[in-house]
Amino acid sequence: MKTTRRRPYAEQRPQDLGGGVWSVPVPIPGNPLGYTLVYAVDSPKGPVLVDAGWNHPDAWAALSGGLRTLGLDVTAVTGVVVTHFHPDHAGLAGQVRAESGAWIAMHEADAALVRLMHSFADGEHRDFQADMLRRAGAGQDDVAVATAGRPDTPALPDRELRDGDLVDLPGRKLRAVHTPGHTPGHICLHLEDADRLFTGDHVLPDITPHVGIYPYDRDDVDPLGDFLESLDRVGELGALDALPAHEWIFPDVAARAAEIRHHHEEKLQRLGALLSERAEPLTIWETAAMMTWNRPWDDLSPILRGMAAGEAAAHLRTLEARGAIRRVPGVDTVRFQAIES
């Protein structure tokens, strides 16, 4: 039986990690991940946060109160670097900016997505999601529930980062490392003066991040392929101490990156074999229902099924890019089948 060091949010405490770095656990209400680890990095101008947490009153109380416990004040924060645009990372960045005047920075690819989300009219994003689910082969009940709610759109950033850019952190060297996959603009942040790597969701100690395609049937991107290349790139940084956004801090990020890559290669092999055994092409939804998840498909909520379908789509797209399978266009849905060798 697999054991884990993961502990509930109630057992988490703000910590001084030494070297002018602190961590504050910030709850994610109603989410099995439990919390986001927000980091503060000291500088002569004031601390810069790595991520900010979910936009919720309890999360704000935890962030501001946790910083206070460590002798820091949220009003003294000079900047928030968002590893990626997801709401458990970017959600409170706007409130931190309102309280302190801090700048918000994220990679330019995720910044473009945030601008796109701000441009959606009421209901437009829900209609987009519903159409995507239907084209993947989802049933009407799954479509209705999966499109019922949507988190608040993250605040627009003030600054955009590219790979290799140094964050505005006087007296320190905090460099952006573009690691696309989980999102197009995901970044890790290498604290070069301390041999530490803030890994966001890219490399976690026990679980693997969600890597999906949205819309599911896109053929112009390969996020899983990007993710695997990003893992190799992180591995080249060496055995740095990893400061992830979830779970716990761990040593040797290169070793863990190699484990995650191996996990996905095995998953790709199993999926390729599954399609080879099928006489008829499969929809993305049918494929997802046949894959192995952390619980049976029938036990997954509609929202989790939607995420599983996104991940199935990403694995199918990588196999397609490698020439192992092909897509079969349909009137309403796309299907995939193995290419005979």
Note down, in words, how this protein is organized.
Residues 35-246 form the Metallo-beta-lactamase domain. It comes from Nonomuraea guangzhouensis. With 341 residues, the chain is α/β, with parallel strands linked by helices. It has a single domain (9-338), classed as 4-Layer Sandwich (Metallo-beta-lactamase, Chain A). It is 35% helix and 17% strand. The protein contains ten helices and 14 strands. The protein has helices spanning 57-69, 87-90, 93-100, 108-119, 124-136, 140-146, 223-235, 253-276, 284-290, 302-321, and strands spanning 15-16, 21-27, 35-41, 48-50, 79-81, 103-107, 159-161, 174-178, 187-191, 196-200, 241-244, 282-283, 325-328, 335-338. The strands form three sheets. A seven-stranded mixed beta sheet has the order 1-2-3-4-5-6-7. A four-stranded mixed beta sheet has the order 8-9-10-11, with no helix packed on it. β2 and β3 form a beta hairpin. α5 runs antiparallel to α6 (140-146), α8 crosses α10 and α9 (284-290) crosses α10 (302-321). The mean pLDDT is 91.
